[in-house]
Amino acid sequence: KILILDFGSQYTQLIARRVRELNVYCEIHPYNHFPQPDESVRGVILSGSPYSVRDAQAPQADLSAIKGRLPMLGVCYGAQYLSQQFGGEVRPSATREYGRAILSKVVANNPLIAGLSDRTQVWMSHGDTIVKIPENYRIIASTDTVPVAAFQIEGEQTWGIQFHPEVYHSTEGKQLLKHFVVDICGCRQQWTPDSFIESTVRELRDKIKGDKVLLGLSGGVDSSVAAELLHKAVGDQLVCIFVDMGLLRKDEFESVLKSYESMGLNVIGVRAGDKFLADLAGVTDPEKKRKIIGRDFIEVFDAEAQKLTDVKWLAQGTIYPDVIESISVNGPSATIKSHHNVGGLPEKMNLKIVEPLRLLFKDEVRRVGRQLNVPADILGRHPFPGPGLGIRILGEVTAEKVRILQEADKIFIDGLKESGLYDQVWQAGVMLLPVQSVGVMGDERTYENCVALRAVTSTDGMTADWVHLPYDFLAKVSNDIINRVKGINRVVYDISSKPPATIEWE
Ligand code: XMP
Predict the structure, then answer these.
(1) pTM above threshold 0.80
(2) Tens of pLDDT along 47-59?
(3) ipTM of the predicted structure?
(4) Is 252 helix (H, G, I), strand (E, B) or coil?
């Protein structure tokens, strides 16, 4: 495997994903908690960083155990660090060095770049530049403005590159990473969904043995794939609980439950909508609503779990970005998914935690799911917030408002699917606004609700842009909602990006 030493760059995860796309396993570790590499480690990549190596508080890593012993590739800050620490010099760049640049080889046959085209496009993003390299370093490629765009240390399997091979706009970036991890480090390209499933199933069996495992299903990709993987490993020792908070999409509880049953899972479906609605009565503050929904979820889940006997394990659908975030250089940041953590249950029932997907990125979870025959409608499903429609009904939540929103949402989502637009959108939904406005239907004046349609593109929900849905499509959806959903006489489309807006309205 490859270890990635993280100096805090926004691109570190992208490096890991690119390496994994080469079917080579890699792990990210913070620069200040780097493990002693064992014999399974074939090479190390040093990431970029938001810091300058000249900053007093710049991240410092002790490379003595690895440099010169294992192949190493420094990217951006990583390259500058390798220069500055060993006698080179790094200064602020005289010209802006962001975006496109053309890389020219200085040494044609260097194994890192030999296979690339002669003038290949690379992507730069740095405020500092290496002005002097140490004596025993050799420049292997330059750009018009950056003489030291790539170097190798003589007699050592250590390279530095100033550009970012991991980003899409470095046209042959993946090829360069392949030269490093496959040709230079000698990693075999065997990290595939099949191999992951095989080894994980084996590990799960060894770990869980004959014990019973409990898992909370949400209808989303992660918990569903985790369930299928565990089911393959331990069969009916896996018991799943799927809670209906009454705040799911229309008919979703029934249809997802059916999918789970068809997957052969042992699922307990709990209908608890009334409890949630009763507890939400009169509450308008968004954060209070979230807390109530979270607390109720835990109560319902716990009560159901307590009925089971002999459970020893609690399985969770934690994925790699959650793991990285919790150990990250910048420290754990506030997590928005906290309500899915099933509270104090592990202590109360004395449960051990098992997280079969904790090494996978989202796209890998989908690939594994496909291999496990998890139904396509589950794998391709848009993200959906834990508190469900509860935070898409602005203000107080009532049964009538849930009904109205479910109807409108179904028309929008079905419309996206029928028009082939669903897969081009990262997340979509409808918000029921606390606004009534005047309309006219037939000869009658109406005074009814307004809904906002929301559809965004994103990769991780951190930033998002609204989707330019075709006017004809919006016109049809608007028409269908107003004509068919009693209680709505106006539809608007949300054209705000995140930031400064958020995806949800509450
Ligand atoms: P925002 O609205 O912050 O949402 O732009 C970003 C992503 O997170 C989802 N979201 C939540 N998910 N519990 C969740 O599990 C929550 O309380 C919550 N709030 C927002 C949202 O749907 C989007 O995908």
Answers:
(1) yes
(2) 999 999 999 999 9
(3) 0.98
(4) helix
